[in-house]
Amino acid sequence: MERNRRITLLRRPVGLPADEDFAVEEVPVPELAEGEALMRTTHLSIDPTVRTWISDARSYFPPVELGEVVRCPGAGVIVASRCGAYEEGDLVTSLPGWQEYSVVRDDVFTTKAPEGVTAEQLLGVVGQNGMAAHIGLLDVGRPEPGQTVVVSAAAGATGSIAAQIAKLKGCRVVGIAGTDEKCEWLTGELGLDAAINHRADGFAEALRAATPDRIDVYFDNVGGWILDAVLRRLAMHARVVLCGAISVYNEERKPPGPANYLELITQRARMEGFNTFDHWGRFEEIAAELAGWVADGRIRTRETVVEGLDRAPAALRMLFEGGNTGKLLVRVG
Amino acid sequence: MERNRRITLLRRPVGLPADEDFAVEEVPVPELAEGEALMRTTHLSIDPTVRTWISDARSYFPPVELGEVVRCPGAGVIVASRCGAYEEGDLVTSLPGWQEYSVVRDDVFTTKAPEGVTAEQLLGVVGQNGMAAHIGLLDVGRPEPGQTVVVSAAAGATGSIAAQIAKLKGCRVVGIAGTDEKCEWLTGELGLDAAINHRADGFAEALRAATPDRIDVYFDNVGGWILDAVLRRLAMHARVVLCGAISVYNEERKPPGPANYLELITQRARMEGFNTFDHWGRFEEIAAELAGWVADGRIRTRETVVEGLDRAPAALRMLFEGGNTGKLLVRVG
Fold first, then answer.
1. Could you tell me the pTM of the whole model?
2. What ipTM does the predicted assembly reach?
3. Which residue from A79, B67, B217, B320 lies 20 to 30 Å from A305 (Cα-Cα)?
4. Using CB atoms and an 8 Å cut-off, which of residues 58-87 of chain B contact chain A?
5. Residue-by-residue DSSP string for B33-88
């Protein structure tokens, strides 16, 4: 009989998650009830949000409890179905968690891949990352042609798409990333107007030089001191789009907020959060637009792939250490 | 020959402004050029913003330089005119600064009082405070009937108006103030649904009890720990209106920002600053609406009046120590 290998949460990580925070188990593959289908996971999507789910912080989902499979988005193939929505062989994306087999239903968490879309794309550019980039940049940030858009974690899965959408909307786009190699990718292949390595000296001066007309839209994935520095460069009526804050998710004590938040008064500016799930009804339309931009080469993607389910904790650490360029995936054996 | 008594900035205050930070001078009353009129100040408006102007912080105005008259809004009477816009005897509001006589022009900083409006009202409910309350609450906060609105410094000049506008728009309104007497004024004469003394124990519990449906609009005049506490009580799609941050203006080192700002993501909420000067074209229309609400008793006001120009520094201290209820004015002898 087929076994299901899975990784559960053994204890809540303090700081960067360690292998010892998790347990690997083998359990029977679940039986299907009417209305359910069985998905065999091929790829897990390693996102900052997974770190918040395994903390005890309040979020849009309840925290993962100790002993539970680590919640995680992923893609895979339907291998058995008692649900009219899925047939054997369908490629789907869902929230399988860190395990080989999971039960899916015809619900908002599960999406069938459109024709010609790969698992990697389904988890990235036409999935959550693409949605977050599209909705966050265009609906919340509302950049106009000629305006200056700054994106942090710009070489990451979401940031790289947000930056490219801003470019194709006619904006001046400045990316912030953590290595010179990433910065070269941003200004080279992705065509950004400038890129700043936040680990190099002179960040504030580099930001000033790269944004002569100040900053109209800031798409923030990192929080922390970079957010504070950007707040000092806002243009009048600027929009700060809060997509995430990767710099704080590993902190045991909640770090101070942005000391420069009163720049929002001086610049009559706005800071706003969003959640892609609120825009569920537009996912298909947005995915089609993103797929079109990928097909005609206007959006380019990269993946960093870690091999093997058991290395999921290591992949999560890599994400916070900035080891990936573009989408970070675990390929499940 | 008539002399002009005035108060200039001698050195930048550290923390709460001291009398020794200012100098009292007597100089000749200025001569008028063509297009100018002479205003004799009767009332100065003591606002938190005066504290930011005498610091070296960037703001929507340049800092007051050492040796300059302290910039301050005020009201007074035209006593000589070479400007077609004003006649002797006109009651006007402008930015006279801490002095008896000042030159005004036909510009955006100077407004003639409409028929029947007093100097106190002109500086308060139909002036900057009323504008800030109306624009901040209705244009930025956009409360809907039945929603919960929380106002900090709710017994202050701007807060008390914002809270009353929210009431007359059909909202549940909770005021935050610093004494039990102020709280009684808020729930008594002003008709708020609840008021919380932030100096009493158990603030978080009191806030939770007063906002059973969480908080849709927070009109913030104070910043600091109260802002952080309110962020934890936001409803979905809440709006945090940044009107000011009286708790931080006396701090030498910039205090940390709101640690709970990521609640803006969890709640898909927004934090936004504004400046009434951006809405100059609507001042007359808004002032008329406010004057109507005052006339029919739907907005009630109080004033705390300090006698004598020389006591302007003491009045500024009183503002930060919460000594005033409603509008704080200096009557210029």
1. 0.91
2. 0.90
3. A79
4. 58-60
5. PTT-EEEEEEEEE--HHHHHHTSS---SSPPPPTTSBPP--EEEEEEEE-STT--T
